[in-house]
Each structure stands twice: as structure tokens, then as C-alpha cells.
């Protein structure tokens, strides 16, 4: 038991989750920050116009995008609560000024304010994949191997070389030689394939053997 903290049961935990999830909430916004003319001056800069209302409350999307009942840091880092529908409404402000002669003047201005009408947890990442063998999936917010190469991935595990079984590289979406496996699982910078062969040889990627460059002698 931790002192100084309220005790919560499953029902209260569920309520807290629902209250903090991605949804519409009214937030106070400063109208001056939306206008390019926050405070006008005229007459040599000696008179200022003050507009009101200064602030209003509008519905905005806010909240967390974690899975129900789970602490998932990937969701927090990869997803963001964003509006899927936005309506723009015109808000009219009234301004008043008093010049150096004590004369009052009234002004009006219109400001377009965004009202969110629908929210959704969406991926922060731009859905573009550098590898043409990959496809962006909204459910995982990641670029993953395309389903049409699933057979190629299955056959990869059956390919046996003199150095062991070949493995499937999910980053490249291709079957690779076992020599590259250590760098792959430890997320190391890839080394040139010739590094794994003696001098004057190159690595043949289809059978993972080192071949002498001049005479094509297999080692």
C-alpha cells in the first residue's frame, strides 16, 4: 500500500481511462493569438484598441492514445489525438479606444475559429515508406513488409547455407545471409558484404559464399 495516494478499484481505473482518452473537450483559446491585428494603434501610435471577448471556449481534441487497460509506450510515442472533422465559425469581437481628446470609438472585427467536431488517434509518422517492398499500416503506425511477399518470407527459413539458415530481415523485407544476423538483431550499422570475406573475394548473396573475384573460385 502506498501512502498519500488514493486507492482505486477496477471501476475507478476504467473511469479514469475513459476520461483521459482521446475525445472532445472544451478549451479556452486566446482570440488575439488567432488575429493578425491583436492591438491596433493609430494617430502616431498614441491610441490603442482593446477587443473583447478576449477568450472563448471551443471544443478541441485532447487526450491519450494508449490501448484500453494497457501501458503501451509505443502507442504514446507513435499516436496522437487529432481532429478528423473541423468546422470554422466566425467570431465577432468588439473593440473600443479612447484618443488623447477623450473621444471613444468602437470597432468590430471577425475572426475564424476552428471547432473540432470529431477526434481520432492517428499516427504521428508520415505514412510513406522508403522501401517499395513495404507498406504503411495504420494499426501499427509502421512500415511493414507487403503481404504479397509472404511466400518469399516463408521460403526464406528453409534456405540452408554452409554458415547456417538464412533469416528474414523485416527492415529490408528480404532474405539475408546468416553473416548479417548479428548486426541485424543488435541494430548495428550495416557493414559492406565484402567485410565477411577474405581480401579479393566478394559475398554471393544467393548462397552466402565467398567467391574469388578473378577466377570465381568458391571458398
UniProtKB/TrEMBL annotation:
<dbReference type="GO" id="GO:0016020">
    <property type="term" value="C:membrane"/>
</dbReference>
<dbReference type="InterPro" id="IPR029034">
    <property type="entry name" value="Cystine-knot_cytokine"/>
</dbReference>
<protein>
    <submittedName>
        <fullName>VEGF protein-like protein</fullName>
    </submittedName>
</protein>
<feature type="domain" description="Platelet-derived growth factor (PDGF) family profile">
    <location>
        <begin position="51"/>
        <end position="126"/>
    </location>
</feature>
<dbReference type="InterPro" id="IPR000072">
    <property type="entry name" value="PDGF/VEGF_dom"/>
</dbReference>
<dbReference type="GO" id="GO:0008083">
    <property type="term" value="F:growth factor activity"/>
</dbReference>
Amino acid at each position: 500500500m502506498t501512502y498519500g495516494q488514493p486507492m482505486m478499484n477496477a471501476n475507478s481505473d476504467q473511469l479514469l481511462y475513459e476520461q483521459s482518452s482521446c475525445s472532445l473537450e472544451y478549451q479556452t483559446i486566446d482570440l488575439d493569438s488567432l488575429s493578425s491585428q491583436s492591438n491596433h494603434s493609430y494617430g502616431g501610435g498614441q491610441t490603442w484598441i482593446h477587443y473583447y471577448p478576449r477568450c472563448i471556449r471551443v471544443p478541441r481534441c485532447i487526450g491519450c492514445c494508449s490501448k484500453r487497460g494497457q501501458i503501451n509506450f509505443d502507442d504514446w510515442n507513435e499516436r496522437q489525438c487529432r481532429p478528423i472533422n473541423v468546422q470554422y465559425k466566425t467570431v465577432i469581437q468588439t473593440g473600443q479606444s479612447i484618443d488623447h481628446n477623450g473621444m471613444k470609438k468602437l470597432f468590430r472585427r471577425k475572426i475564424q475559429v476552428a471547432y473540432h467536431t470529431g477526434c481520432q488517434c492517428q499516427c504521428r509518422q508520415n505514412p510513406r515508406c522508403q522501401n517499395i517492398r513495404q507498406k504503411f499500416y495504420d494499426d501499427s503506425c509502421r512500415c511493414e513488409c507487403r503481404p504479397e511477399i509472404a511466400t518469399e518470407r516463408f521460403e526464406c527459413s528453409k534456405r540452408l547455407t554452409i554458415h547456417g539458415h538464412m533469416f528474414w530481415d523485416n527492415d529490408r523485407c528480404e532474405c539475408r545471409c546468416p553473416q548479417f544476423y548479428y548486426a541485424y538483431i543488435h541494430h548495428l550499422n550495416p557493414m559492406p558484404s565484402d567485410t565477411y570475406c577474405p581480401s579479393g573475394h566478394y559475398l554471393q548473396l544467393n548462397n552466402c559464399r565467398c567467391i574469388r573475384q578473378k577466377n570465381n573460385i568458391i571458398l
